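Budget justification note: compute hours in this period were largely spent on complex prediction jobs such as the one shown. Inputs:
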Amino acid sequence: MVLLKIKFPFQKRVRLAQGLWLLSWVAMFSGAITFAMGVFLKTELHRRSEVMHSMDIHIVPNLLMAVGLASVGINICAGKVCQDSLDPSRFPRWKTFLPPFFCFSVFITSLLLVAMILSFALQPSLEESLKIGLKNGIRFYKDTDTPGRCFQKETIDRLQIEFQCCGNTNYRDWFEVQWISNRYLDFTSKEVKDRVRSNVDGRYLLDGVPFSCCNPASPRPCIQYSLLDNSAHYNYEYQSEELNLYNRGCRQALVNYYMGLMNTIGPCVLFDFLLQMTILVSLRYLQTAMEGVIGQENVEIETEGYILEKGVKETLLETKEKMKKILQFAQVGDASAVTPDTQPDAEKPATA
Amino acid sequence: MVVGKMKFTFQKRVKLAQGLWLLSWLATLGGAVTFTLGCFLKTELRRRGEVMDNTDIHCVPNTLMIVGLASMGINYFASRICQDALDPGRFPRWKTFLKPYFGCSVFFTTLMLISVILSYAMKGSLETSLKIGLKNGIRFYKDTDTPGRCFQKQTIDHLQMEFQCCGNNDYKDWFEVQWISNRYLDFSSKEVKDCIKSNVDGRYLVDGVPFSCCNPSSPRPCIQYKITNNTAHYNYDHQTEELNIFIRGCREALVNYYMGLMNTIGAVVLSVFLLQSSVLASVRLLQTSMEAVAGQENVEIETEGYLLEKGVKETFMEYVDPVLKLLLLNQVTPPEAKPEAGATGTTTTTS
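Corresponding output:
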């Protein structure tokens, strides 16, 4: 049962080859663009890698880069094949190359779809990674004298300023952490001693945030300290104050940013996938249509093109058998090397 | 006294025309690049237009944009001329067009050079404009409830964070201005009353800066208030503290930024200028060498090409005279000329 049979007169074959050649150039560009987008996404993820705990999300740009490069190669081959296809003397040399080429191409093209699905599926993983990364960043904010953590303060400050966010979930995350280093606390003063004694771990906790949480759009100068104390500031009520600090948490800001990036990249990748599949299907039709011409004297006869000679199940079984035979041949080759006795037996009947 | 005389064999003329055609396309690209650079510079100047007092500096990008567009037109015509140059049948139709064309082209090409010189000459004007603009911005920082000034705070905050600068000359400019609005001051508290009584104008002056002056690279949390008071903060010495707030003034930061931009643009525009000049010189040589061929039967003779038929001064007067005559036409014609013209007219009819 042949799959999707189409009749191809000579003119239709010629037009198919020409159209395919043009399309392969467009798809090559598209593959290059996919590669570029993969590089861009990887760069953006790398820039904020200090506030990410795991690198799981990097599989999406890695896949995009690999598929982009592979698809450029695939489309170059496709262009060459369809250049040779209309010449019956040059076409047969592609015969053995084409079946594995198709398997490889279909595999690579399906990876595009996998990358798109992953970009949505890995969102919880990204969120978790950011949650832990930001929590650590806020915890080690004060450790500007500890090697390995000395840049956390600058990283978190610049992040909060650039993404207009404060803290992990919101600004109250700063209340639960000591973000002022002991080097800058006067332990002889009463206020410091009271605060340190007021909690079990002996940490200096206060209802204040760093300056990078301040919102420039606020009409009044920034209130950073004593945020929950209405009487500490004139004409101030923290429940109704909205513009003083950034309301958004940095985790949500970063997740929104990266999801926005991937939502923009998604349609381009989908377009590339559809284009690539069209090329593969057209190339298969061209190959099967030209196979009917090989050996014939009249090149301009009408032939049939199809996608699969037999049905899907039968083709799969056939491929399985072929793979088994190849594996067996490798095994038998080993066996005959171990036992040379079988060879003289084969020769005897010939001489007799 | 002919300027720039060169002999041109037929082959040399052909090669000149071909080379000129390529060069004119390159120069068109150069003109487009100049136009784009002018647009970019204008956009950058407009983005910070709120801290500039006047728009004098905008003449630089405006000139660049005009010159870019003009040079695209000039080079388009240059390519058309050299396409027709090697065909003696088609070349004569450009004859009357070429004189005004050269006049315009030389004018716009000189304008290109002038724009590069201007970009350096206007540095002082830019600095003064920024000085006044920033001074006003800092003065009106607190007026977030006054229409027309309500965005000054946000503008100055964003500027200081983006350019990593503080104040006009440096951070001390904030000490001389009341940047905290009266709406947020408790006039019943002793501290506020003392502060206001301590100066003549009754302003609330503090030795503090807004949060946008804070430097994220500092190892300690930002010290914004009581900056000059060492005892107010533990382990703090304001004379040796360098990383707490931005030390640079915003005027210096912005001037450096714009001068850097204009230096890069100036280098590119200078190379476009050289390209354009060589295109014009080549068109002139091609025209003069082809003029000798016109009317001859044998097209492949050797001719002479030159840049200027007379000296520089005489040629300049030749171009300027028609323009002056055009302007003088508006003046009253002398009365003696009229009856004379009438008398000569009658004498010719009677004779």
